[in-house]
Amino acid sequence: MAVKACFLGSARYSHPLDGTNRKKFRVLKPLGEMFVIGFSRDVYPRRFTEHAHFYLLPQIPLSTLRYMEAFVLGQLLTCWVIFRHGVRVIVTQSPYEGFAAALAKKVAGWVGCRVALVVETHGDFEESVFMQRRVVFPKLYRFLMRHVVGFTLKHADAMRTISNSTRRQLEQWVRGRPIVQFPAWTDIEVFLETGRSERNTHAPEILYTGVLIPRKGVHHLIKAFASVADHFSQARLVIVGHEENKAYAAGLKEDVEQFGLKERVKFVSVVSQEELARRMGRACTLVLPSLSEGLGRVVVEAMATGTPVVGSKVGGIQEMVQDGSTGFLVPPGDEASLAERLQWLLEHPGEAEQMGKKGHDFAQRYFSTETFVRGYGQIFDTAQTMLAENREHAP
Please, which residues bridge with residue 180 across strands? Predict the structure, then answer.
């Protein structure tokens, strides 16, 4: 049975959609009619249809106002698609965005309209926020967070996780409700097709890609690179990502200056998936030095291009990287171990190439578009079954 479902979250979308999101919603379209509530990439609200119906809130620069915007307008828009368009399944990106969806579900229930709520978790929702930026009044923040999460999960009908670690955390909060697990979306074909044709044979590049926030541990990577840079004069470090935490990003650039690496460390803003695949393909290794990570999607993307990965032994990273076979795992924050692994890869390009080939084979098995679509099909079937059961038992 085709579903009418709404995705509610803080994801940002362009208009028209970029190639990756265009493909994502195109492959989901056969499952039913999709609605998306998120943010635009600028300060202008947008409403358009491209494989799904998009309602995008303006991207207000101040995060506090953006949270309020998501809570108030996100809830109103969710109620709108429920009552105006007959949406019966809400999929929310995290327990926090889910608070607005849970309230909308209650409002719909007051007038006899039954809606199923699916709550996703893509990372450590209890601690990650404290690793991303300085939080004023952390005890109060934790108190409010626990109550928001508790309210959302109390009203959830089903859950979706992306790794074993995110599943274990969720199971500590809720029991007896269905949990569907499958990886986050990635346009894996772009990375598989790139292969090793982009290899840079002149100057070995170490690559990081991701947002620039403390939780990602990029400061540890810079210090590790500084300790091996003198031994490999041709090596370069390329850091690709959005400066989400401006103060942290500025601190990273100051570190580069202090280590005398300005000519050997390059900061690059957000790039397209095609350009990212090319950069991964020519890198000698991708490094993800996170202190906490739900899955680490860039790990499987790098593997798909045949690039070995060095990652922290946290969350979903350790579920994908086979230490010593497809890459290396290091303790989070251990700059000496990270430097040692970087040095080994730079000294053993032949062995690194073999690691990359094994990673490529793993990526082909681990993620596919079919797996992603089948996962959401299972979620929608579960939600609709629960709605039908609730109607049968309704007084």
Answer: 160
